[in-house]
Amino acid sequence: MTGKEPPNYQRVVDDLRWRILSGELAPGDKLPTEKELQQRWGFSTTIIKHALTLLRGEGLIEGRRGSGNYVRDRTQLVRRAHSRDLRKRIGSTSLFARDSEAVGKRPSWESDSKKIPAAPRTAERLGIQPEDEVMYTKYRYLADGIPIQLAYSYEPLTITGGTPVEYPEQGPIVGVIARMDFIGVAIDRFVEEITTRPAMPEEADALELDRRGGMWVIAVERTYFAGQTAVETADIVFPGDRYRLVYEVPVDPWSPPDETEVS
Fold first, then answer.
1. Cα(143)–Cα(94) distance, rounded to whole angstroms?
2. CA 144, CA 28: separation in Å to the nearest integer?
3. Would you give the end-to-end CA distance of the chain in angstroms?
4. Residue 155 clears pLDDT 60, i.e. is over it
5. Which band of pLDDT confidence, cut at 50, 70 and 90, is reported for residue 3?
């Protein structure tokens, strides 16, 4: 008894997937054109387009407007939450640069800061009044020129206003904890809430996501605290397939159970 022959589009998908995963087609290699695939398989344009759509959905290939389809570089940056923040980091080296260089990628980033009134949701997260002034900084991070992370940061100007670290990217120190240390504000914890969701149109554009493939992102809402005071809150957005988040959570040391508790 023989198995049922797979659909024609699946035969194309299986062949190209094997060639990619085996390394025959390396990251950055251009795939045969749709016409060449038609000629090779003898299938219709509709079948070839469907097969390519499925491969994009699997994150194996990406379309480049006016150029064709290419094998995606699936190397992921690793974000280790337990070592994100170091005190007294001097200079311009960022944790994103460390993450990128760890996987052989060249880091770069763009940023723009300006003073704005806090929106109600931002004010709630920071424990301030709506319309209170905050420093808003918008970031776009790239690895080898490929957008890989967006971040939108808000800091109350009642804390940083008029200090050397008022503008996050213009002072002698980088990193929220190190900058706050510099002005005598001791951060003692941060809270992150993580969700996944479809990318918003402006995020898809900024991250150069292939609209014909999957467009899901990891969204992190992070807030730093010094005691009960929130000193920075940020929205961080990662393409779902370009970053891996790693968390290490300490567990209290083991001790023998109290006999009175188990009797």
1. 13
2. 12
3. 63
4. yes
5. low
Domains detected in the chain:
8-71 (1.10.10.10), 77-246 (3.40.1410.10)
b/e sequence 223-245, b meaning 16+ C-beta within 10 Å:
bbbbeeebbbbbbbbbbebbbee
- Collapsing DSSP to helix, strand or coil, 55 comes out as helix
C-alpha–C-alpha distance, residues 133 and 223, integer Å: 17
Cα–chain center distance at 190: 18
C-beta separation of 125 from 230 below 8 A: yes
**Residue 181 dihedral angles phi and psi, to the nearest 5°:** -55, -40
Cα–Cα distance measured from residue 218 to residue 57, given in angstroms and rounded to the nearest whole number: 17
What is the rounded radius of gyration, in angstroms, for the C-alpha atoms of the chain?
24
Surface-to-core class of residue 259, CB atoms within 10 Å of its CB (0-12 exposed, 13-18 middle, 19+ buried): exposed
Return all residues near 118 (Cβ < 8 A) that are at least 6 apart. Answer: 126, 128, 129, 130, 131, 132, 133, 134, 154, 156
Give me the percent of the chain exceeding a pLDDT of 70. 87
Strands 61-64 and 68-71: antiparallel
145: left (phi over 0), alpha (psi -120 to 50) or beta: left
81-123 tens-digit pLDDT: 655 555 555 444 567 777 777 777 888 889 999 999 999 999 9
- pLDDT score of 30: 92
